[in-house]
Amino acid sequence: MKKFIVAFLVALLPIGALAAGGAKLPLQHIETDYTNQASLQRGMQTFVNRCMGCHSAEFQRFERAAQDLGMPNNLVEEYLIFDSEKKIGEQMTIAMAKEDSQVWFGNPPPDLTLETRLRGADWVYTYLLGFYEDPSRPWGVNNAVYKDVGMPNVLEDLQGIQKLACTEEVLMRYGIEGDIDPLTGARVGGCLSHDASTGELTAQEFDKVIYDLVNFMAYMAEPSKQDAHRIGTYVLVFLFFFFFLAYALKREFWRDIH
User: Fold this and answer.
1) Residue 24 burial (10 A CB sphere; 0-12, 13-18, 19+)
2) Is pLDDT at 4 greater than 60 in this prediction?
3) Where are the alpha helices (DSSP H) in 21-107?
4) Are strands 192-195 and 161-164 parallel, antiparallel or unpaired?
5) Could you say which DSSP state residue 27 is in?
């Protein structure tokens, strides 16, 4: 028993380490909805057009997504598969070799199939909303959730420019632990100000784009979740009626004994 408890506590250590090194910005909650096919379709469109330049989703197939999201195969082939040699039944991979991306970015961009399973939908949602201007970084941006991120803000043209705008009053009000850069004196992490005039979308419109994108990523991480819920409902209904049948059978078997 002691060995079991020790093993359980050791298994929790990585979770604690991830939490300790996690967001300085309070995570915003998102309710994913696998039944909202329109949202999932828009999310897939954003993912293919904006994310798959660098990130793959090699554990997901175009055809499976098309079937689950209610999209005809011919439309997916025409508008969402840009490689003329790639077939609808193939995985959602990219042409960029990992060796090249290692040289260009320092580390290969991660595969995003299971990203929401790894970090949670709330983390991914807040991360995508957390880019802000930082001229000291190679791509000119930093992130309030992932400090010193090595990824450019590929949605900046839609969102517009965000800047770090934290005051001690705001930090204390929301309990945000903003770090101070010892070289520049700038605060890292915390609250952001948004210049709406620099983006193509309003804050509400951009938030919807990010919701749809994260909703699709959550589906992609668990494409069978909706089927599991549906089958689980049938199983529970069956067990409910089977209980009365089993109880009646038990009473019949034991009637003469008592």
Assistant:
1) buried
2) no
3) 37-46, 62-69, 73-79, 98-105
4) antiparallel
5) P
CATH of the domain at 74: 1.10.760.10
Identify the band that residue 21 occupies on the pLDDT scale cut at 50, 70 and 90: very low
The domain in which residue 91 lies consists of: 25-223
Integer Cα distance of 51 and 39 in angstroms = 17
Write out the two tokens for 83.
């490689």
Q: Is there a domain that residue 9 lies in?
A: no
Tens-digit pLDDT profile for residues 33-78 = 999 999 999 999 999 999 998 999 999 999 999 999 999 999 999 9
Integer Cα distance of 219 and 217 in angstroms: 5
How far is the C-alpha of 155 from the C-alpha of 3, rounded, in Å? 49
* Cα angle for residues 85, 90, 94 (degrees, 5° grid): 70
* Rounded Cα–Cα distance for residues 177 and 162 (Å): 19
pTM (2 d.p.): 0.75
